[in-house]
Every structure is written in C-alpha cells, then in structure tokens.
Amino acid sequence: MMDFETIVGNVRSKTPLVHNITNYVTVNDCANILLACGGSPIMSDDEGDVEDITSICGGLNINIGTLNRNTIPSMFLAGRKANELGHVTLLDPVGAGASRLRTETAAKLIDEIRFSVIRGNISEIKALAQGASSTKGVDADAADQVNADNVDSVIAFAKAFAQKTGAVIAITGATDLITDGKRVCLIRNGHPMMSRITGTGCMLSAMTTAFAVANPDRLFEAVCTSVIAMGLCGEIAHARLGDMDGNSTYRNYIIDAVYRLTAEQMKDGAKYEMR
Amino acid sequence: MMDFETIVGNVRSKTPLVHNITNYVTVNDCANILLACGGSPIMSDDEGDVEDITSICGGLNINIGTLNRNTIPSMFLAGRKANELGHVTLLDPVGAGASRLRTETAAKLIDEIRFSVIRGNISEIKALAQGASSTKGVDADAADQVNADNVDSVIAFAKAFAQKTGAVIAITGATDLITDGKRVCLIRNGHPMMSRITGTGCMLSAMTTAFAVANPDRLFEAVCTSVIAMGLCGEIAHARLGDMDGNSTYRNYIIDAVYRLTAEQMKDGAKYEMR
Amino acid sequence: MMDFETIVGNVRSKTPLVHNITNYVTVNDCANILLACGGSPIMSDDEGDVEDITSICGGLNINIGTLNRNTIPSMFLAGRKANELGHVTLLDPVGAGASRLRTETAAKLIDEIRFSVIRGNISEIKALAQGASSTKGVDADAADQVNADNVDSVIAFAKAFAQKTGAVIAITGATDLITDGKRVCLIRNGHPMMSRITGTGCMLSAMTTAFAVANPDRLFEAVCTSVIAMGLCGEIAHARLGDMDGNSTYRNYIIDAVYRLTAEQMKDGAKYEMR
C-alpha cells in the first residue's frame, strides 16, 4: 500500500517551493493547483532570472507548451542549476511529436539535464522514447491509449525509457502508467471529462513536482500518489457538477478538490495496481 | 433558416484542431471554450514552431491582443503556411486603432494573408476599413455601436470591406453584423454584462475558427452560428447568476453554457435577421 | 472617515482605463478585477506599442512578476511616458529580494520613474527600502509580517521610503500598512485563505491603479480604500464558500464580490485605523 498519509502530509507541512518554466496557457491553473496541494509556486523564465529563482526553490517544473527562443535557453540554464543543486526536476514535453522544435527541444533537454520525472501523454512519451510522430496536436492519439491489448508492450517501452533516462516515467491518460524502470503502477482514477479541460496534464506536472520535492526519499511513490490524487479529484469534482455545469466549472472544482483532499479520501478512492 | 443542427453537429463530431497565436490575457479561456464547443486548441507562437503546428491543424486563429516583436513574424509565417494549405484563417485585430503598431500590423496581415474571417468590435473594424482611430483602448467606442440610425451605413462599409478582403466580416457588439459582401446577418443575442468580462471577443474568435473549420462549405453560416451561439450562451449564463455572482462566475457559466449548448437551444433562442 | 461613497463611485462612473505591463500568471484575473471594480484594462508590453497605449490610458500598472529582457525596456519606456503625461503610476515589485534581476530592476524603476504608488508584501518592500533579501520566493517571509511588536519600526521605515520615493507605500499582508510619508493607515480586513490564491497581490495592484486614476485629488485615500475593498471582498467571498469549495472557487468569488461591492458594505465592514 502507498503511504498516502505521509506523502500528502509532507506536501501540506513542508510547503515545497516550485520553480515553473511553463506555458502561458495554463500557468494560472498550475499556480493555483500548487497552492491547493500545499506547495508554493514561482514562475520565472528569463535567462537573467532563472538561476537565482531555481536556487531558492526545491524543485523545477519545465513545461514546453509554448516554448520559444527566449525560454528554451532558460530551460537549460535552470535545469543545469537544479541538477547542480540536487533539486527535483520534472519535464512535461507538451506536443513532443507534433513539431520538430518541440521534439528536438525535449530530446535535447533529456540529453543534457537529469530529470527526476518525465510526465506526458502516451503520444509524447512515444515520440521521445521511440521517435514516433503524432498529428493530434497536444492531445494523445486515441490509437495510442494504454489498454488491455497493448499494456505489456507499453510497460516494456516505458521501463526501458526510465532505465535510459534515470527518470520516473509517468504516462497519463484513461489508464496511467508510472514506472521507475523496475516497479510499475497502473492507475485507473480519473474521468473522461478531464480531457475537455485545458491543462489537466500541466497541472498534474506542477503538482507532481511539489509531491516529489516534499518526499525526496520516495520519489516513485510520490509520483504515483500525485497521479492518483489528480484522478481522484477529477472524480470528486465530476460528482459535484450540476445540470448546467460544463468544463469551466469542472476546472474550478478539480482545483477545489485538491485543496480539500485528505489522505482518507485517497485511501478510500485510489484505484491502482502494482505490476 | 440557419441549419444549426448540422453546423453545431459538425463541430462536435469533427473535433476541429485550431492553432492559436493569441494574447496571454485570455488564452486560457480561449482554450477552454474551444474544448467546450467540441474543438481542440493548440497554442504556439515561436517562429521555429508555428509552421509545423499550423500544418497539423485545420484552422489558424490570429489575435493581436498582446502582439510583440517575436510573435508578429510568427503570425505572418503561420498565416502564409495556412494559406498555402488552404486552411481556415481568422484575424482578431484587438486594439486596432488604439496604437500604431496594432493598426499597422493588422493592416499588413490583411494585405499579405488571405483571411477567411475578420472579427472585431466596430472601432477595430472601422480602423482597418476606414483608417479611423480610437481612444478607448480595446473596447469599442460607444459612439460607434451599431444602432437603428447607422445600421445602413455600417452595412455598407462592412460589405465593402468584405468584398475588398475576401473575408467574412464579423462586427460584434450589442448588435452583431456579419457579412460576406453579399449576405448580411444582424444578430441580437447576448447580454450587456458580457462586456464586463475580459475576453468574450477573443473567445468568440477562437470558437468561430473551430466552427469554420468544421463547416468548410458554409463559411458564412458557420460564422453566424458561432456568433449566435456566443450571444445565446451569454443569455443562458446570465440567467443562472445568483445575487452574489459577478463577472468571474459569469465567465465560467458562459464557457459551461457552450459546453452544454444544443441545436435545440439555438433554434429556440436565436435572434437574427437576414438583410 | 474615508469617503468610500465618493471614491468607489468615481471608479464606477469614470471607467478608468489602466495600462498593465504585468506577468502572464495572473493577468486574466487582473483584467477581470479591473472590469469588476468599474475600470477598463489594456495589456501591452512591446517596446513598439507601450507608449501609444499608455498615452490613451489614465494610469499605468507595472508588475515585474515574470519580467524578461523584452518587457523590462517596455516598463521604462511606458513609465517615462506616463510621467511625462502626469498619469498615475503603480509599481508591484513581485519577487524583489528573491533574485538579483528582480531587485535591481525594481530599484532602477524607482530611480528613473516617479511612482504614485508602490505596493508589495513586506519582504519585497524591505528588499527595496533596506536591501534585505528573501528566500521565500514571491511570498512574504513569515518573520517579516507586521505585528504588534514590530509595527512601530515598520511604520518608520515605510514612512521613510514614502518620503524618499514620493510614492504612497502599501505594504500588504495580514495587517496592511499604507503611508504617504505623513499619514499612516493600518487595515485589518482580509482572510488568511487569500494567501492560498495566486494573484491576490497582483489583482490588488491593478485595482488600486484604477482607484487612483479615478480619484486624482485624494491618492492616499484611494489607495487605502482599494486595499480595504480587496480585504473586505476576501471576507465576503470566504463567507460564501461551501464545504467542497477551495481556492479556485474562492478566487472567482473574490472577483464577484468586487463586482457587487457597494459603499454601504465598505462603511459596515471596513476595519482600519489611522496612526
């Protein structure tokens, strides 16, 4: 059993400070979910600022959702500094496989920076692990989703990618798959409507960085717990929706659910299996 | 009668992928309203990324709300690529007339890129069609609003601008006016409180791009339907507001209403006339 | 007694247009709170655009939350133009003390631009007034909070900083302290949960600019009234929260409360004392 009480409790009590170099689409939601889970966000993406900022934080969340010529060098600078200081580092390779700049930047980041965690949808992770390309933009290709038929092959490539990169790999979708190269956790929390909100993936990456910072001795469990928490909050929030509510209210309720989340809710609601 | 069932149904069933080069103020709302209506958003604004991204999308939404020296060249690159590929292109000339950079950039975009749709408030469209300047920032000058007295002259200049540019022109405000240079549609849906939310115009532009992508053979009707949908959702959302609700809840309810919108609601609630 | 009726009424009736050069994290909330209070926002941060835009506005709000090499020169250009035109200018030195770039940029802005108002948390203001540095990111150091023991010394340094800069200084936190170098107002409105939302400080700065623009002859009172209004709206919004609501709904309710705020509510709820 995952020790939700300790892991969630550490996030609440330690207020992990997370430096985010992230896209401008979902940045506000990332900041609010970090505050909701018990962390503290700071955003900074200028070459002249990122090293100082990352130095005072506990972890670094790099999200390439709206990467550009100014922020790409900042990602490398901050990543190197975070590595030097032994900080938690997470990469969210938004849209890897959808454009050359995204695929190459993500690949180069993985080459030059040691990431603690790499979190993406299956199309993005495949693009990085296998050179596969996608034409579905920033969403996962339906054909790629983890299911009973392909789960063994997905586990195999995810494990190999974890071993190659030294990172915990988190492939999220209808079924989530987390691996550190040895252990594998399959998670079935969540709700399909989460894909109708922008930024559930980005928010999860930000929150996962905070979970990892607050639980340095159990990185794999911290990542699994964060992914379970996000899925469970998607379920709790969905149950609140009224007849007239849509994806905007749903987004608010998910962040609210993270704010209210307890270890008890997690013990009762977690749907995961170790493989 | 507009065939709302087919037009809205196409958006829901085809999941039109829309590339947005847009401002960082309302970008999250634009992404969520695209998801709400049935589309799929991707944001990308770096010169090295936009051509790849626009190539995998069905339409391009250019919004100059926070234009800058890095994103302006990207707008031209993406626009040319979209033209080359025959994609839907929409221009939202936020603040044209309010600064020289905005007016000139919008004018140059119209010169060099063939737009399927140009959507703005009347002050912005006047600035582009007639060289008029505004001192009201990004909001329309009250003196400019379409009303019974000036409707014929507004129709005349809008038609001429549509003929000149080859674009469907959508002038939105208390009364909306849509024209393809021949047909004219006046729409009276909406609620005055919509002007107390940031980004209703930007959201409409993003959604309209999705409607156009999903209905390539009836561009004019698709634009009219999107404008009616936005106004109607403004009415539906307003009716939900409680005593303590203000513009932030209203924003959420409008996006929620788009998420829930049906062709039946549109048949019952549309207020438009063809001229 | 503060004349809330006149001050709030002026904001509602004059629709002050505020130019914001601000961070991309909380920019949407800043725009919506400006609309909520009765103002009108415009965002523009390119060197080629800011002088035109600031010229048509009544006030300029500079927030360094995600400053970068492109927007820093824009802050100086816009600030000089606003000074030249006698406009209200506000500085929000987000993260001053947390990085060299932030501290130096804020200090240089204060040297070269005459600010009407400088608003920050106590760690930020201390960094600028006394060269103190912080390691708590963008949040105030708990050790710094204004309390009974240190209030006299905080008043002394805030007064000195106001006299040196010629600005009204607003130090906000659990207890807010406003001074123009002579008068001092201590405010005890607000709720601790406000610190669990991103952007309450940024929103307050944007709104304060609007209050100052609409009340040019009573700058100090306008700043105090805006700070009281924000705190009171935090209380009103908190009272609405249900069992499942968290920080995302709270953010919406605060903006909603500003939208609905009346001078009567302020007369009944204001908790301030002049020192």
**Biggest sheet descriptor of chain A:** 9 strands, mixed
Mean pLDDT of chain A: 96
- The general outline of chain A is globular
Q: Which band does the percent of strand residues of chain A land in?
A: 5-15%
CATH level-four homologous superfamily name of chain A? Ribokinase
Q: How does this structure look, described?
A:
The structure is a homotrimer of 275-residue chains. Chain A has helices at residues 4-14, 27-37, 50-56, 71-85, 100-112, 122-130, 151-165, 200-214, 219-240, 247-260, 263-269, and strands at residues 17-21, 40-43, 59-63, 88-92, 117-120, 168-171, 176-179, 184-187, 272-274. Chain A is α/β, with parallel strands linked by helices and 275 residues long. Chain A has one domain: Ribokinase (UDP-N-acetylmuramoyl-L-alanine:D-glutamate ligase), CATH 3.40.1190.20. In chain A, strands 2-1-3-4-5-6-7-8-9 form a nine-stranded mixed β-sheet, sandwiched between helices. The radius of gyration of chain A is 17 Å and the shape is globular. Chain A starts with a helix and ends with a strand. Chains in contact: A-B, A-C, B-C.
Short description:
3 copies of one chain form a homotrimer. Chain A is an alpha/beta fold and 275 residues long.
Give the secondary structure arrangement, pairings included:
The structure is a homotrimer of 275-residue chains.
Chain A lengths: L3 H11 L2 E5 L5 H11 L2 E4 L6 H7 L2 E5 L7 H15 L2 E5 L7 H13 L4 E4 L1 H9 L20 H15 L2 E4 L4 E4 L4 E4 L12 H15 L4 H22 L6 H14 L2 H7 L2 E3 L1
Parallel strand pairs in A: 1-2, 1-3, 3-4, 4-5, 5-6
Antiparallel strand pairs in A: 6-7, 7-8, 8-9
Helix pairs in contact in A: 1-8, 1-11, 2-8, 2-10, 3-4, 8-9, 9-10
